Amino acid sequence: MPIGVPAAMRPEGAATSLLPERSRSAYQGRVMPILFLIVFVDLVGFGLVIPLLPFYAVRFGASPEQVTLLLAIYSLVQLFTAPLWGRLSDRIGRRPVLMASMIAFALAYLWLGVADALWMLFAARALAGACAGNIAAAQAYIADVTTPENRAKGMGLIGAAFGLGFIFGPALGGYLAGNNPATANLQAPAWVAAGLSFVALCGVLFVLRESLPPEQRGLKPPASRVAAILSALRRPVLSRLILIFFLVILAFAAMESTFALWAMAQFRWGPEQVGYVFAYVGVLSAVLQGGLIGRLVKRYGEERLLLAGLLLLAIGLLVLPFARDLAILGVAISALALGMGLTQPSMNSLISRRAGRAEQGSVLGVTQSVGSLSRVVGPALAGVLFADLGRASPFWWGAGLVAVALVLTLQLVRGPGVAALPDTEPLSSTK
Fold it and tell me: Is 153 exposed, middle or buried (0-12, 13-18, 19+ CB in 10 A)?
């Protein structure tokens, strides 16, 4: 049995929409564009500052290891808080979690804009990571209002918002900062990002309604964060999917955190050029996840798309170190963008479909926590590899991780053993 089993074949309690069947389609049609715009505006702000952080840190005398740790600190704090936000969204609803997260993001960006020391950069990013419950809540919102059959298309909406956010965000951030690392204006992008988070907050406050009905909130006492993670690890299909997710994000985070340093050394690039590369990644990701992923899933299924995405990621990481001109760089970056565009919504859909309907926030929170662990370990190890073994070493290492994920996925799809076992013991269980 494939890992994305039909609704009739899934175990008791598998994920279904929480809205009544009669109103689900109409509500989806109204709410999806609204949710997309809110997440998009929020992620434009996120994309504004991410490519600029290495330049910001270097200005304060940071070493390569410190640069990658600055990128990792957000995920280090998120590692401990993401499951809490996910469980909280199951208990009180998605909307309050979205609003609290966006308020914290606005404050963190303001702090980043006035930072005058390296420790302040770390503190601002830690604050943002501590309150980063917006993506898990948005994914749970989509799980609330979609059926299992169109879950991947709904999750692709978040991916498309990511992609478009990384079109306009890095390009705008690079334009505001300039192309000279020594004189770049690194404060203005942070202030613009704060304003965009406030706009997204207003969208949630005045436009978006709650997707989780009162009778569905806190159906069972939520498991503790540790209990939720241990419960997921005891569920054979879900644990394998989460392991694959961990390896993929680990590899991509290693590349992402060292790309600016690599580009400075390889091409003598500044913030503007790096921003445009991230914007190009966003274009491909948005086109794929926003316009094509639903049709691709219907034709090929999440499992095949996951395999194709992993293969493209491996190719991109293998080719990237050989880039000496824009043509080869374009091939590598295109493969990476398309690979993540296929992998991420397929993974999120498969993980969501293995969850019980009252534990969507908890399961996706655990997944975000695992992703956060990857984004802590990946940049930290990539910084050491970059400094000690050369600027290509993080990419080779990432390619090896993706190869392991590819083997695990093949075993899960083809094998009659683990893939055929039903998942049991939902994360909301108190046993």
Answer: buried
pLDDT in tens, 11-31: 333 333 444 544 555 455 567
* Distances 386 to 261, 264, 379 between C-alpha atoms, Å: 9, 13, 10
The position carrying tokens 């908890």 is: 362
What is the spatial distance between Cα 156 and Cα 291, in angstroms, rounded to a whole number? 9
Closest by CA to 201, choosing from 303, 98, 60, 113, is 98
Report field, pTM of the whole predicted structure over 0.85: no
Spatial contact of 77 and 235, defined as CB atoms under 8 Å apart: no
Phi then psi for 429, rounded to 5 degrees?
-65, 145
- Chain centre to alpha carbon of residue 180: 30
Confidence of residue 230 (pLDDT cuts 50, 70, 90): low
Scanning the structure block, which residue is given the tokens 């929409």? 17
> At 72, which helix (H) or strand (E)?
helix 64-92
Rounded to whole angstroms, the Cα distance separating 400 from 395 reads 9
Cα-Cα end-to-end distance for the chain:
28
Can you name the residues that pair with 123 across neighbouring β-strands? none
The domains found in the chain, sorted by start residue, are 25-210+222-420 (1.20.1250.20)
H helices of 115-235, where?
118-130, 134-145, 151-177, 187-206, 225-233
Q: In this structure, how many other beta carbons lie within 10 angstroms of the beta carbon of residue 333?
A: 21
The mean pLDDT value of the chain amounts to 77
The pair of structure tokens assigned to 34 is 């609204």
Alpha helices in 288-423 (DSSP H): 293-319, 326-353, 360-389, 393-414
Rounded distance, CA 50 to CA 278, Å?
A: 10
Phi, psi angle pair for 210, to nearest 5°: -70, 135
Are 427 and 362 spatial neighbours (Cβ–Cβ below 8 Å)? yes
